[in-house]
Amino acid sequence: MCRNIRSLFNFDPPATDQEIEDAALQFVRKLAGTTRPSKRNEAAFDRAVSSIAECARELLDSMETSQPPRNREEEAAKARARSAARFA
Question: Within a 10 A sphere around the Cβ of 49, how many other Cβ atoms?
């Protein structure tokens, strides 16, 4: 999985459309093996991003959990601590 794709489920506030679109873009880039499609493939690339973003939003909206929502700031602090320990 691409390391730039972040978990978007069960956060307070919920994932924004922009975050979902960014994750879909990263996913399509990974599948396509390119960060920028050729002019010839641009329309297919954009359709794939839109379609995946729509599916991702549907998935996130339909999932349920009994866990309380996670705090974005706390999760970011934990990730920074893990990174500091890993690269120290």
Answer: 19
Give which of 58, 59, 63, 53 is closest to 17, Cα–Cα. 53
The single-letter code of the amino acid at 75 is E
Residue 6 lies in a domain: no
pLDDT at 27 over 80: yes
Q: What are the residues whose beta carbons fall under 8 Å from the beta carbon of 5, sequence distance 6 or more?
A: 23, 26, 27
* Separation between Cα atoms, residue 19 and residue 82, nearest integer Å: 23
Assessment of whether the complete model's pTM goes beyond 0.90 = no
Q: List b or e across 12-29, with b for residues whose CB sees 16 or more CB atoms inside 10 angstroms.
A: eeebeeebbbbbbbbbbb
The reply to whether 2 falls in a domain is no
Q: Does the residue 48 lie in any domain?
A: yes
pLDDT level of residue 65 (50, 70, 90 thresholds)? very high
